[in-house]
Amino acid sequence: MAWRAALRSKAVISGLLSCSSHGRLCASPTFITQRNNSTSPKIKVDYDQTTGVAVMHMQSPPVNSLSLDFLTELCISLEKLEMDKGCRGLIITSNQPKVFSAGLDILEMYGKSPEHCGEFWKVVQEMWLKLYGSNMVTIAAISGSSPAGGCLLSLTCDYRIMADNPRYTIGLNETQLGIVAPFWFKETMVNTVGHRNTEVALQLGLLYKPAEALKIGLVDQLVPEDQVFTVATQTMTKWLTIPEHARQITKSMMRNPTIDKLRTNRDADIQNFVSFITKESIQKSLRMYMEMLKQRKA
Amino acid sequence: MAWRAALRSKAVISGLLSCSSHGRLCASPTFITQRNNSTSPKIKVDYDQTTGVAVMHMQSPPVNSLSLDFLTELCISLEKLEMDKGCRGLIITSNQPKVFSAGLDILEMYGKSPEHCGEFWKVVQEMWLKLYGSNMVTIAAISGSSPAGGCLLSLTCDYRIMADNPRYTIGLNETQLGIVAPFWFKETMVNTVGHRNTEVALQLGLLYKPAEALKIGLVDQLVPEDQVFTVATQTMTKWLTIPEHARQITKSMMRNPTIDKLRTNRDADIQNFVSFITKESIQKSLRMYMEMLKQRKA
Amino acid sequence: MAWRAALRSKAVISGLLSCSSHGRLCASPTFITQRNNSTSPKIKVDYDQTTGVAVMHMQSPPVNSLSLDFLTELCISLEKLEMDKGCRGLIITSNQPKVFSAGLDILEMYGKSPEHCGEFWKVVQEMWLKLYGSNMVTIAAISGSSPAGGCLLSLTCDYRIMADNPRYTIGLNETQLGIVAPFWFKETMVNTVGHRNTEVALQLGLLYKPAEALKIGLVDQLVPEDQVFTVATQTMTKWLTIPEHARQITKSMMRNPTIDKLRTNRDADIQNFVSFITKESIQKSLRMYMEMLKQRKA
């Protein structure tokens, strides 16, 4: 079992939710405001009308944290691509070195009002709903580490190609921070690696090295680091030869039961998240985690 | 992942639904009529009362297409065997060289009235319901290729032994033809190889070589081509040592949730199939596919 | 497939439900009475308040049969530990040589009144409900064979470490005795090894050697026989570093759907068991099995 190896490795206690700024500025409300005013796009979309393939480059330094702004931008881009009938495939990748995405931005959950937390969670749901149910062929070109929400982002895709570098890890490691992955994170993982692997991975908040991730099926293919994008493009070409309508209906048939569970429970799920994350004990966990991140930086 | 290998191989685009006649006669209504008048049995049943084991030899040239006649004959034979309390085991195999069954007969779906399509689909359901829920021990002796409906037929059995010949393939490749495998095909496959393997296999319409099929659990055992039937017989002997009543109840417990879903939705499922298959775009796909088959013959 | 190996091995027909006394006394009502009066504990609990880890040593000669008394004692111990907030981990192991637990005690089901059978089944349910849903980290240190109910006991734990001795076997082999594993045994196994492995294992009542059990995921780790307990202790230490509250909620999320199915159907499940086990044909199977055990002893 790959998670036994993962449990032994130090990876378990590294990586996790992310902090969109460098450690020292993490808790600064001023910084947040500046960030909101930022106009440089956090995601660059290249869409090639000839091939019908769009590429989303995540480019939000330092670690592509999934902030409210980032996710909003992601959802808007997705909606545009989805509505363009010519766009049939989407490759998601990162322009940041060593990281695909470090996951949900803690700053959106720490010291924030219930309203803000609720608004944030809604866009996390939206991202998942749009991607897991996308009509496009979606491929994650995982060019670096991909913990927590970054792993979820990968799991929504149809195919996952990861850089074969043992320094990188991937996994839903929320438990390590004292946070619980919600049922739809869980079901997405069960649909990918099965019930038992998920039970262990989520209980322990495991992060897997690429070889371990491949073994349990958390990623589909490992390639040398400099070939991740090329192989993603080649794979996309193969997937696009499949009759489109039949493939889309088949995808829906496989994924809609899970999607419907969230769709019919969005408000309750938001309520659940907000009341959990605003608990004093959880806020304390988040603060300790951010301080740990700062110390690592220093 | 075996489906990565399958995706790379050319197998993906070969094989598929079948055509009960040789290419040139495919679209000929006259031929259909002749076929309906045929009195030679498409299935030969050998039942050994000493052992309690029946063998169904599929012998409908050239490729054991699952036509309305073929399936009707299959269902009648099944019902007889099921009602004979002495018959405890069933081996399904093919007398045609190189093929187990090439799947549903396109001629039953192409250029036919909605009524005919509905009648055909009903007997496809009936075959699945009878076999997936059979009280007998059922073993598929897969002596050749087994795409689409042929794969489904194998999946209904309790155990699958396949000829270890890399020229043969097996899989639910309907998507390749623009057709969607219905939910009960999907669930039968999920029950056998899990959710993720099914998601990829059905989206891409993958056909697996024997070694790949074994790897994901689509078949249970590979043996040299000339030993498929012998090993099936030996395996049957072992299975028949198990206390029968407990084994039957256990089998029901595992399979009834899936069976019940179709049983309570048969009419809707027929409606769904008929309205899909009679669409102009799907009929066009079927015609193109048959022309492709003809060209290959020529 | 490991169950193919298991099917070939002789293990299939050995082991099974157990008999709490030595063969010759099995059917003696006198003995039963004596047993009920026994005051020596069948389970020794060592609880180390420093580490927060309790160890349950099963010590009911000869084979830790899960009798009414044994299970009652187990449930009481579990309840005490669960209520002690300081107790965070539980290791279950056996003090009997060569066996973890031989499973449900046939004497509680053979020649007994429906009332007795019902009372017995209720405590079997209770054991499963308490363990599968425990807030503690639970680890099975499987120091010997573990058929039927012994396997179920292991499957309720969070992690299974087994002695790497090919003489030992583990599995839900009820079918071999003509008995049907109930739906919650089945679901616990599906949650651990998946649908297809469960379908074959339960239909055939397979017992797996350690290497085969590891291969399908029925156990998580094999270690030399004399290190089972040490490794269990080390593993526990790692699991206890995980933030507790998040781990517990995650565990519930994974297991509650299965637990709820039994919780809302306990009476029907008892009725079902009682009417099945008191059937003349099943009682006959049990008698034959006990006679087979006696002959083996002699």
TrEMBL record, chains A, B, C:
Pfam families registered for this protein in UniProt: ECH_1
Organism of this sequence: Characodon lateralis
TM regions (residue ranges): none
One GO MF term: isomerase activity
Family note: Belongs to the enoyl-CoA hydratase/isomerase family.
InterPro entries assigned: ClpP/crotonase-like_dom_sf, Enoyl-CoA_hyd/isom_CS, Enoyl-CoA_hydra/iso
PANTHER family the record matches: ENOYL-COA DELTA ISOMERASE 1, MITOCHONDRIAL (PTHR11941:SF45), ENOYL-COA HYDRATASE-RELATED (PTHR11941)
Domain of life of the source: Eukaryota
Keywords of this entry: Isomerase
Gene3D superfamilies: 2-enoyl-CoA Hydratase, Chain A, domain 1 (3.90.226.10), 6.10.250.170
Protein name per the record: Dodecenoyl-CoA isomerase
